[in-house]
Amino acid sequence: MTRTPLLIMGGGTTAEDRARLEAAHPSVFASNFDELAALDAETRAGIRAVAYRGHYRFDGTGMDLLPNLEVIANFGVGYDQIIVSDATARGVKVTNTPDVLNDDVADLAVAMLLAQCRNMVAGDARVRNGEWPAKGELPLNRKVTGSTAGIVGLGRIGREIADRLAAFKMEIHYTSRTEKETPGWTYHGSDVVSLARAVDFLVVAIVGGPETEKTVSRAAIEALGPRGVIVNISRGTTIDEAAMLDALEAGAIAGAGLDVFEGEPEVNPRFFALDNVHLQPHQGSGTVETRRAMAMLQLANVTACLEGQPLKTPVN
């Protein structure tokens, strides 16, 4: 009997991406772990690779359904839902899709910062709904150029964001596990509170997962102060969301631009009552070109595994 070496998993997989994977390798599809468990044992035993595109926890319990699994190829740079320690313990490799999405995510971070400070959604609405003649101009906005920006995590994406903000004549501060080679930017070690105290805009660009949970703490949010704006394109867990909401509601910080949330796609309704936030539905990498590049890199990792070649972007 012909083995089916690839499991395409996740309800978010597009028809185009699924067709590309199926054309490359004999495949079976499961949208979730219940459907995976429902596959017969022989089919599950033949699976060597998983092309994963899910927002639910993939831990040892799921991996044990696939006794001959060799790789979980994640669609996305963030892999916090895949328990890498469980994979490593079972000899399973994990890959992700870094670099190809850096520009789009950085672009969105800057766009949210501009949209929040220049009140662009309200401006669009005033023109679109015909209120401009009667209500006149919006209240004056806030200047962005020449401010001070802090990047929490000067990795690949963080560096792209910093380079863009530097073009806005901003002074750049950052935290990172190690000091980076920069054009004289100010390094704060791992002290996010010190970083927040020094800047106008705090942009969060670290990976998700237990190690980074609430890296932007209540103390950091308080240190940012009433002129401070938070921009988050990382994961909702990297910020103390309750503390951020408290600060936004009280005017203790000026605003936020957020592409990620705790418990997404469900979002705390407290955000909806605020006029000092700009909200996006986790679409940092959401362009045709970048999503195709991510899909191609995911497929390249699957193919490398099944052909016995080195993986392109291993995590563990």
Characterization of this structure:
The chain is α/β, with parallel strands linked by helices. The chain has helices at 15-24, 33-38, 41-46, 60-63, 84-89, 102-117, 120-128, 132-135, 156-166, 192-198, 218-224, 241-250, 288-306; strands at residues 6-9, 27-30, 49-52, 71-74, 93-95, 148-152, 171-175, 186-187, 201-204, 229-232, 255-258, 277-279. It has two domains: 6-98 and 289-306, Rossmann fold; 102-279, NAD(P)-binding Rossmann-like Domain (Rossmann fold, 3-Layer(aba) Sandwich).
Please write out the topology.
Elements: E1 6-9, H1 15-24, E2 27-30, H2 33-38, H3 41-46, E3 49-52, H4 60-63, E4 71-74, H5 84-89, E5 93-95, H6 102-117, H7 120-128, H8 132-135, E6 148-152, H9 156-166, E7 171-175, E8 186-187, H10 192-198, E9 201-204, H11 218-224, E10 229-232, H12 241-250, E11 255-258, E12 277-279, H13 288-306
Parallel strand pairs: 1-2, 1-3, 3-4, 4-5, 6-7, 6-9, 7-8, 9-10, 10-11, 11-12
